[in-house]
Specification:
The complex is a heterodimer of chains A (about 110) and B (about 110). Chain A has about 110 residues and is mainly β. Helices cover about 0% and strands about 55% of the residues of chain A. Chain A is globular, with a radius of gyration of 13 Å. Chain B has a single domain, classed as Immunoglobulins (Immunoglobulin-like), CATH 2.60.40. By secondary structure, chain B is mostly beta strands. The relative contact order of chain B is 0.34. In chain B, about 0% of the residues lie in helices and about 50% in strands. In chain B, the strands form two sheets. In chain B, strands 2, 4, 5, 6, 9, 10 and 11 form a seven-stranded mixed beta sheet that branches. A four-stranded antiparallel beta sheet of chain B has the order 1-3-8-7, with no helix packed on it. The chains are: A mainly beta (about 110), B mainly beta (about 110). Chains A and B meet through strand 5 and strand 10 of A and strand 4, strand 5, strand 9 and strand 10 of B.
């Protein structure tokens, strides 16, 4: 089945610095989504980007399908960005997703 | 605003007992999912459903049953709970994006 590897496992930044999160996967997929999990545990979808580049607010995701990798760039990080970022892939059209273990981001003031 | 509500939020059960986790969505989504999240494993799919009356096995269905009696409701049933099922359980529904509930923390003693 699909394998999803995220790196780094954790990242510590000063407020205002940029973050670059990586997601590598074992086989191509028609769905790729990035999620944010707050320190309290709530999960929200950030964006969907199965190929190409997508921007939303301070987030930019670039997915290179043939190289089986995706990145999430967070510009001008804020303390409220602290949490865990999860990459997830699926291929069924039903959002049946396989998740990576996540990158824990800590942004200090 | 898409809404997925899980109950209970916290549950302590005894080994061998029956546990039912409930999920209600007001998104009118056809697809619903149950995931569990454990340290070191990330989110793993237990069961999912394409609509009322349907349930499908996910990646780790052993020891779990699911029930989808209506579009809005999706339950996860542990007939004989074991300590290895101690975890945080998330329900989700999806249209284009996945919307998660707040999670249920289950401890099986």
């Amino acid at each position: 089945g699909q394998q999803v590897q995220q790196s780094p496992a954790s990242l510590v930044l000063q407020e205002g610095e940029n973050a670059e999160l990586q997601c590598n996967f074992s086989s191509t997929a028609t769905q790729l989504q990035w999620f944010y999990q707050s320190p309290g545990g709530s999960l929200v979808s950030l964006l969907s980007n199965p190929s190409g580049t997508k921007h939303t607010g301070r987030l930019t995701s670039t997915t290179v399908t043939k190289e089986r990798r995706s990145s999430l760039h967070i510009s001008s990080s804020q303390t409220t960005d602290s949490g865990t970022y999860l990459c997830a892939l699926g291929d069924s059209g039903y959002n049946k997703l396989t998740f990576g273990k996540g990158t824990v981001l800590l942004v200090s003031p | 605003e898409a809404a997925v509500t899980q109950s209970p939020r916290n549950k302590v059960a005894v080994t061998g007992g029956k546990v039912t986790l409930s999920c209600n969505q007001t998104n009118n989504h056809n697809n619903m999912y149950w995931y569990r999240q454990d340290t070191g494993h990330g989110l793993r799919l237990i069961h999912y459903s394409y609509g009322a009356g349907s349930t499908e096995k996910g990646d780790i269905p052993d020891g779990y049953k699911a029930s989808r009696p209506s579009q809005e409701n999706f339950s996860l049933i542990l007939e004989l709970a074991t300590p290895s099922q101690t975890s945080v359980y998330f329900c989700a529904s999806s249209g284009t994006y996945l919307y998660f509930g707040a999670g249920t923390r289950l401890s099986v003693l």
